[in-house]
Amino acid sequence: MEALRSIVFALLLFPAVIGAFVWCVVLLGKILSVALPGRRPDWRYSLLRWGAWMAGAAALILYLLGAGSVAMSVNESSQGADSTPAQECRDDYSMDRLRGQRGSYFPLGFDCVLDDGGTGPSTNAYFWLNTSVAVSALTAFGLVITMGGISEHRARVALRKPLVTTADNPPDSDTCS
Hints:
By secondary structure, the protein is mainly alpha-helical. 62% of the residues lie in helices and 10% in strands. α1 runs antiparallel to α2 and α2 runs antiparallel to α4. It starts with a helix and ends in an 18-residue tail after the last helix.
């Protein structure tokens, strides 16, 4: 079981660290390409599509970093003579109140189990990490919705169909109302 935890840690954390570095380099390159002259004519739509992919990648990278951190905390708290309760829990709660710890991958967290059956967070970092993952994912989703709206608008303009039907401007016979 301990070997499996180490493998999960390596599979989650190390690729995410490399991905975070690559993400930052790609972001810097895109900022330079937008700031310098010689952009493509459709650079705004291309930038929306790129931003959606990058926000989705950021959500995935942040989640993998957090999951790797949870796996590392679980692994450290289950090995050695003085590993339970976890050091993070000992720093925040008195030893007579602690009964153990629990890792969670959705939402990300490493909680300390208390004697009354309740739990307490070992650190506030997981709150910020979960918030960052959610904001990045929602940003990616919002950009995809915006791209769909722009594509729909372009298609309507190309076909010269009205966006709003009124008494003066009835819908075509091939559209449903």
